[in-house]
Q: What sequence folds into this?
């Protein structure tokens, strides 16, 4: 079947985060694909053990988090990033050369002088200078994936080539199983993006579903060679084994086919900060009709080295995606997206009740609906500015919706999200 869809709509269907419909079965197949037998189980056990050893590097200190996580403080030079063939002789860049907000960081460490951002593991300790915190991967984390090789990766889905301004057919939305409520800009050269993102704990109906809120930084032909850098918060029982709200990143240079992963589950992203753990729980979270909490994320390209840096909070620079990881993003991004995404598995024949954002529609406003505020792009002069010609998109606005605005301290903002299944979204 052939179909061509709008540029932005194509991306929304393509950018589908990891979800599992299968599990790694320890005793099901042999390496050659033959069924049954203890040999196959032994081989897979060895594969899982080998992968765990590669992910869980020897720590100099271990911290037990109240939520059950184990945080390993690993020497910066021993992180997974340097397994990448393009980074074997890479010299770690200890700080960005340029910052779109004009900040200057010290040589030895990128640190914060403001109120520290809290992750739950901080209650029981911190990692020292020269190390980075890595959330330890458990055997069951890998066993929940469809295969050892697919652990920590997003699913690749082939999509038709886009054609401008053609609406997305309902049948294609149903097949994709993913729904969004986003704001976006396209058609320019972008060198980064920023947003302050309201943090919630949306309810997830099925273990193979998820809910996330993130920034996408995109470039490429959007076929087999899409480049994407992504960062935000997510609730993903399949990936983490619980319903905690967690900080995450992702990258790919080939439309999720072979390259890239979440957080530090593969080689690529180089972390330099010892305060923040990718994949760790965020605290505190917003409450409906009560206290509201948000996080700030900035991703920008260093014009001198070409690396893409990530900052969490006011001045916690976490690290960077080295330029050699990418093809199109070695230049600039051609599209930026901000917003939410969920999986709608329709496991019981009805729309999922998995929530996006706060689980409430944008019209409810502050304290009830989830928001992105002060959304900005980085221009060719390495300066932050408000996005021009901001568009919005959602597949089914009676399930999840988005509503933009602009005002004072909030700059350009939008409310987004929804409950999923409801009388208008059966």
A:
């Amino acid at each position: 079947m052939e179909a061509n869809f709008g540029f932005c709509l194509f991306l929304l269907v393509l950018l589908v985060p990891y979800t599992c419909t299968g599990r790694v079965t320890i005793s099901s197949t042999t390496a050659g694909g033959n069924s049954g037998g203890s040999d196959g189980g032994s081989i897979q056990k060895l594969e899982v053990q080998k992968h765990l050893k590669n992910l869980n590097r020897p720590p100099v200190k271990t911290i037990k988090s109240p939520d059950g996580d184990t945080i390993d403080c690993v020497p910066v030079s021993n992180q997974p990033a340097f397994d990448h063939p393009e980074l074997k002789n890479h010299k770690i860049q200890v700080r960005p050369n340029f910052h779109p907000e004009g900040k200057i960081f010290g040589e030895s460490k990128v640190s914060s002088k403001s109120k520290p951002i809290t992750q739950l593991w901080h209650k029981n300790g911190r990692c020292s200078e020269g190390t980075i915190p890595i959330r330890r991967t458990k055997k069951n984390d890998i066993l929940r994936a469809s295969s050892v090789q697919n652990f920590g990766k997003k699913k690749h889905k082939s999509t038709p080539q886009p054609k401008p301004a053609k609406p997305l057919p309902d049948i294609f939305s149903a097949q994709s199983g993913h729904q969004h409520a986003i704001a976006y800009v396209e058609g320019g050269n972008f060198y980064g993006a920023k947003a302050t993102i309201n943090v919630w704990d949306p309810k997830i109906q099925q273990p193979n579903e998820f809910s996330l809120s993130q920034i996408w930084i995109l470039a490429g032909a959007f076929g087999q060679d899409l480049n994407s850098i992504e960062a935000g918060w997510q609730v993903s029982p399949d990936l983490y084994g619980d319903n905690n709200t967690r900080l995450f990143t992702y990258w790919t240079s080939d439309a999720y086919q072979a390259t890239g992963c979440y957080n530090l589950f593969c080689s690529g992203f180089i972390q330099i900060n010892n305060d923040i753990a990718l994949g760790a729980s965020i605290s505190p979270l917003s409450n409906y009709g009560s206290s509201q909490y948000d996080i700030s994320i900035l991703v920008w390209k260093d014009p001198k080295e070409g690396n893409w840096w990530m900052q969490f909070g006011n001045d916690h620079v976490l690290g960077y995606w080295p330029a050699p990881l990418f093809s199109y993003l070695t230049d600039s991004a051609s599209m930026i997206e901000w917003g939410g995404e969920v999986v709608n598995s329709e496991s019981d024949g009805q729309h999922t009740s998995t929530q996006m954002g706060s689980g409430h529609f944008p019209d409810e406003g502050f304290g009830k609906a989830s928001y992105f505020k002060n959304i900005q792009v980085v221009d060719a002069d390495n300066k932050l500015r408000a996005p021009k010609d901001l568009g919005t998109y959602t597949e089914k606005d009676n399930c999840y919706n988005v509503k933009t605005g602009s005002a004072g301290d909030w700059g350009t903002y939008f409310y987004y999200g929804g409950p999923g299944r409801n009388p208008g979204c059966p």
